[in-house]
Amino acid sequence: MLSLSLILLHLVLVAADNAYVIDTSGSLVEIDLVSGTVNPGVAVLGNYPNDILYTDGFVYVINSGSDNSALQRINVETWVIEDLAIGTGYNCWGEQFLSSDTLLISATLNNSLVVVSTDPLSVLSEIPGVGPCPEWMYLAEGYAWVACGGWGSDNNLVRVDLTTMAVSDTIEVGVNCQSVAYDGVDELFVVNSGVYGSDEGSISIIDAVSGNVTENLSTGGFPSIICIRDNKAYIGDGWGPGVYVITTGTHEVLHDSSNPIFTGGTGFDIDSEGNLFVSDTMNGQVRVYNLNDQLLVSYSLSNPGALAVNGCLTGIEISDPIRPAGALRISPSPASAIITVTGATPGEKILVFDLSGRCMESSISDESGTSVLSTINLPEGIYTVVSGSLSARITVLR
C-alpha cells in the first residue's frame, strides 16, 4: 500500500503561487502556477515520502520509511533541508497542524501520535494508545479524528481530545479505514478501503457531536484518501479506477468505482480560488479542475503523490486533458497475472522494480512500443515500470 497525500486542505496564502508535489521515488517537485514551469528534483526526500504540508515559506514532508528523517522541513526559497528523527521504526504516516508552530504526526507502527515543534524542529511529546496503525487524521470540534485500520485488519476511528491530549473513545467504522475529513458543519467522512483486492471500499459518515456512525455508503474499489470541496467529497482510489464523488449534504454517491469522475487520486489539494489539484501517478500528471469539475490545466511529472498548494492557479494555458505526450500506459491495474505496457519506445527495455529498487521483471517492447509482462510471480504490492526516461506505477493484487 502506498501512501499518498493529502491529501486534505493544506493552504496558506503567500506572495508566490506554487504547488509542491512529492515524487514518490524520493524527490520534491515544484510547479510554478504563474508560468506553468515544472521544476523536478528541487529537494531530495527520505525513504517512502508520504505526506506534505505547506506554511509560511516551508514544506513539511513525512517519510514513512525513514527514522533519521521522519520529518523534513524544507525552505522553498533556498531548498535547505532540516531533518528530524522521531522514533526508531515508528513509520510516521500523516501530519496536521495543531497550531502555527506545532505539528501532530501519526506514528503507524508505534500506535501513537507525536507532537512536534516546528521552531526549533523537535519532538515535544507523544500520545499513546492510538491504533492500530494510525494513518491520516483530521482536526475538528476539539478532537483529532484518526483513521486506524490496522493495515487492513481493523476498523477503528480513534478520537483524541486535544485539551487533555489523550484518547477519549474509539468508533467502529469500515474495514481498513485510512483517512477522514470534516465537512465544516457537523459530519465527518471516513474512507474505508476494505480488504485488499476485495473491491469493497466504503465511506462511513460520523456525527461530529455524538461520534455516532449515521450511515455507510458503498463506493467499491480501494479508496484511501479524501478531500472535501464545497458540498462534495472527493475520494481517491489512486491505484484503481480513479476519483469517486459523494455529496456531503444528501450523501448521494455521484461517482463510484464503476464510473469515477477523474483518473488518479493519489494526492489532493485546493488552492485559494477553490480549484482542485489531483495527482495521477499512473498517468504521470497533476491536473487542476475548477468548481464545475472542468479541467483547467495539466502538468506532466513522474510519480506524483501527495501535494501542497499555496496561492492560486494563474496564467492558465489549457493542455491535453487526457495524457501527456510520451507516457507509459499500463493495463490492467490493479494487476493479477499479466500487464500490457504501451507507449514505450520501440525496442526499448522495459523494467519492473519493487519499492526497494530491485528489478523483478523485464522485457523488450515490440515495433509498436508494446510489451506483455507476467506478474504472476510478483508479491502483492506496488511496483514501478520503467522504459527509458518514462515510468508509471502499478499495483499487484491477487
Give an overview of the whole structure.
- The chain is mainly beta.
- The protein starts with 17 loop residues before the first strand and ends with a strand.
- The radius of gyration is 20 Å and the shape is globular.
- It is 0% helix and 51% strand.
Shape designation:
globular
Q: Can you tell me the number of structural domains?
A: 2
Structural class: mainly beta
Strand elements, count? 35
**CATH fold-level topology of the largest domain:** Methylamine Dehydrogenase, Chain H
Question: What average pLDDT do the residues reach?
Answer: 89
Q: Biggest sheet: strands, sense, closure?
A: 4 strands, antiparallel
Spatial separation of the terminal alpha carbons = 14 Å
Spans of at least 5 consecutive residues with low confidence: 1-15, 317-325
Strand content: over 45%
What's the short version?
The chain is an all-beta fold. The protein contains no helices and 35 strands. The chain has two domains: 18-310, Methylamine Dehydrogenase, Chain H, CATH 2.130.10.10; 329-396, Immunoglobulins (Immunoglobulin-like).
